[in-house]
């Protein structure tokens, strides 16, 4: 019996299976995202398995399987104290940074005098990396805990501040929006409250999302100051003791929590802006 | 009696005296408007018609108080204009509803700013929403509304504050022809009730004749009022009237007058 063959020259069932697979994986955006992670870990595992060594050397890089084993070990030995310490530090730093960043950003964007008085020193401090703040954090803060919160604050503050300023200035430069307010009899306060603040919200939101990521970004730096607990502390300590799989585990856990919290922030901001529509190419 | 049924024919007199506007651009003085003289009666519907670049929008912006004149002045009901205010409602060419407010909230904003009590303003806004057929869309955000719906909401947003003058800057230019005709009829319909003074900027001859009591035809380089033409077509007007001999005749007259200016403004580009 002849197997029916498609025009391209391979059995029809193969083509159909392909269609089903591509239907599942490429039509469905969540499936595409899972696939992306699968490919990432798969490629990494293969590079380790073949001891890839061409300019970049994978011979000593822990493979995903080794990292997974280290993670299992970590989770069997009371991991929650580490999570709790890190999450608390990041959230405190982030809370202060976002509160202060949005407040100062709005003031700087709205009042010329505030801009003149605050921007020069802030611009001077902005390029300083979090790690350079460690000595001063030790000198200035009463204990390691507040020093660590300060380091995560440094990471989160500037993106929030700059995005907020840009948002306010961008809205103020929108002649039509401002004129709409003016010919409805709006006083500066109304223009501020009904036009400038909501108009800068999309920009503030992106600052808050980037700031959330940056707070986690600075966690390892912050927890160099830590004595015992914290995901960043484990990562740093494993490096000092040349225990490689937990380093990568720590990196991935920070990445995971950073991504999850950024996602949560961006969802929360979307809920605040039901009036926004985002249409992308290729999104159903 | 609701505000919608009142006739306000006593306020809305506009006086434009020797108005000139010039901008400095790369060290050169560019005259946009040159000694404009214009008097508008309360309740009159005046169309400013002209080719692009004749300064008709600039003139409207000066009356609104968005732009300061270089010389001359504008008075509305004997009060000189120095800044924008709620007594001059403005309908913009672009869709200008605040994207973060629903149709209702957009229309309500002026009343809220003025400090009207919540119950009163809800009732008034609902009246107007019903009047322009948007009641069912009162909780829609602008992005959920068509262009025509957004412009209806913009017109109502200006009218709800019972302005002395309604300034309209090519409000229907971005709409498709069908919607544009419907909007023109709707605007006249509301205007017949309110009798607010309207200054309507357009480059569409047919639109100007269909809507206006009077057309001011503007010329270019620098912008000036070249001719004024009273439109005696009976009211209320309907779309059929645009096919009448009288209308076609007016159209021809205006076209001849404006063609010269259009040629001039095109020469500048060639």
Give a brief rundown of this model.
The complex is a heterodimer of chains A (284) and B (270). Chain A is mostly helical.
Descriptive report:
The complex is a heterodimer of chains A (284) and B (270). Chain A is 75% helix and 1% strand. Chain A is an all-alpha fold and 284 residues long. Chain A has a two-stranded antiparallel sheet with strand order 1-2. The relative contact order of chain A is 0.11. Chain B has 270 residues and is of the alpha/beta class. In chain B, the strands form two sheets. Chain B has a six-stranded mixed β-sheet with strand order 6-7-8-3-9-10, sandwiched between helices. In chain B, strands 2-1-4-5 form a four-stranded antiparallel β-sheet, with helices on one face. At the A-B interface, α8 and α9 of A face β6 and α2 of B.
Core attributes:
heterodimer; A: 284 residues; mainly alpha; MetI-like fold; 2 domains; two-stranded antiparallel ribbon; 12 helices; B: 270 residues; alpha/beta; Rossmann fold; six-stranded mixed β-sheet; four-stranded antiparallel β-sheet; disordered N terminus
